[in-house]
């Protein structure tokens, strides 16, 4: 069974042509799926009963089930979703003044093995399919609609569990579905993919012709420290990463966001800030400082507020645009992998 939610419009059009249907049938289905939010083929009254039977035989319209739901005092919603084969993934909804942002997972677990990240420590089980990625947004949209009719997901960050460029094709299909005008119509500038720094993925992404954003999990300003925190750096070091970023900036004509997690006594001194400034100087990117969400699975501690502000001041005084990431849902295990780890008895 092919899940229709995973198909970008051009793929669905090809499938309809293969079925002996008109290309327009695909747009008609998209309108049923995303505008009218049909949950069964029987509702699709402008499609012949005969073709509806064909659709029922070969295609399905399934979204993941909610296994656990937590709502924070700040309105953040964290879901543990259960997939068809029983695997579970986390999805988080954060409320900003400008809209509702969802943080989607791209894989069940992760194989990148960053030393500070609980998802990485649990290993990777499998890639998520494009319909499971779209499904995370649909589940959240359903909850928002229950709350208030006009509400919907307006922003997407692919920053949940998993490395999106290690599941490249499914993530690109997902982006095309959510971005499509007749799909979920989420603007490209409202979609961000975050990578631990896979140069081939960055180069490919640069050539997708998308106006979506790219965030790079940098976290360390030199190879020695980055090797310690992110083992992927031993394969693709900072020189290779920075080369790929420069190519991205040129080809996509977009600037990246550097994510920099502040870990107490590890990467948060002014010397590190100076090194970071030097490292990214030749690029147009800006820095997003992330307060660390402590987890029992790792020994790292978050940097003090003073340290974070001193780091920020150094950057801004040296011509680097930088911000501190706003925190959500700290009362509901909102950091990556924590709800899942807790539900599976690992926390
Ligand atoms: N694999 C991708 C996307 C998923 S991780 C990537 O590496 O970018 C999303 C972000 O959360 C990354 O910047 C990651 O380093 C960070 N992160 C992981 N564990 C964290 C924690 N406990 N607290 C704060 N940020 C964390």
Topology:
Elements (H helix, E strand, L loop, with lengths): L1 E2 L5 H10 L5 H12 L13 H10 E2 L4 E7 L5 E6 L5 E9 L2 E5 L3 E3 L8 H4 L2 E4 L2 H18 L7 E4 L9 H12 L11 E5 L3 H8 L6 E5 L5 H7 L8 H15 L4 E6 L7 H11 L5 E6 L13 H13 L4 E3 L13 H6 L4
Parallel strand pairs: 1-2, 6-9, 9-10, 10-11, 11-12, 12-13, 13-14
Antiparallel strand pairs: 3-4, 4-5, 5-6, 7-8
The structure holds S-adenosyl-L-homocysteine (SAH).
Give the C-alpha Rg: 21 Å
The SS-based structural class is alpha/beta
Q: Which ligands occur here?
A: S-adenosyl-L-homocysteine
* Relevant CATH superfamily of the largest domain: Aldolase class I
Number of domains: 2
- Can you tell me the CATH architecture of the largest domain? Alpha-Beta Barrel
What fraction strand? 15-25%
């Amino acid at each position: 069974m092919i899940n229709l939610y995973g198909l970008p419009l051009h793929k669905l059009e090809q499938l309809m042509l293969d079925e002996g249907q008109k290309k327009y049938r695909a747009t008609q289905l998209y309108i049923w799926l995303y505008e009218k939010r049909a949950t069964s083929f029987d509702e699709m009254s402008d499609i012949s009963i005969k073709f509806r039977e064909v659709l029922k035989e070969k295609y399905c319209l399934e979204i993941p089930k909610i296994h656990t739901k937590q709502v924070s005092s700040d309105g953040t919603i964290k879901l543990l979703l259960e997939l068809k084969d029983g695997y579970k993934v986390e999805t988080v909804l954060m409320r900003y003044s400008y809209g509702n942002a969802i943080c989607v997972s791209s894989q069940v677990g992760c194989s990148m093995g960053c030393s500070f990240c609980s998802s990485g420590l649990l290993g990777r089980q499998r890639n998520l399919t494009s319909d499971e990625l779209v499904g995370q947004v649909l589940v959240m949209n359903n909850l928002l609609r229950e709350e208030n009719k006009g509400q919907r997901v307006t922003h997407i960050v692919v920053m949940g569990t998993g490395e999106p460029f290690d599941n490249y094709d499914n993530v690109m299909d997902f982006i095309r579905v959510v971005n499509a005008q007749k799909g979920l119509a989420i603007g490209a500038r409202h979609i961000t993919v975050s990578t631990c720094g896979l140069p081939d993925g960055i180069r490919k992404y640069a050539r997708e012709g998308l106006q979506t954003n790219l965030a790079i999990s940098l976290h360390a300003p030199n190879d020695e420290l980055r090797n310690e925190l992110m083992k992927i750096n031993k394969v693709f070091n900072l020189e290779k990463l920075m080369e790929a970023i420069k190519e991205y900036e040129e080809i996509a004509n977009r600037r990246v966001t550097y994510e920099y997690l502040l870990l107490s006594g590890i990467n948060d001194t002014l010397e590190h800030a100076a090194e970071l400034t030097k490292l990214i100087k030749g690029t147009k990117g800006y820095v997003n400082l992330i307060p660390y969400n402590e987890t029992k699975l790792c020994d790292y501690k978050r940097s003090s507020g003073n340290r974070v502000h001193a780091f920020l001041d150094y950057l801004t005084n040296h011509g680097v645009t930088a911000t501190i990431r706003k925190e959500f849902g700290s009362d509901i295990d909102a950091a990556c992998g924590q709800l899942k780890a807790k539900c599976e008895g690992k926390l």
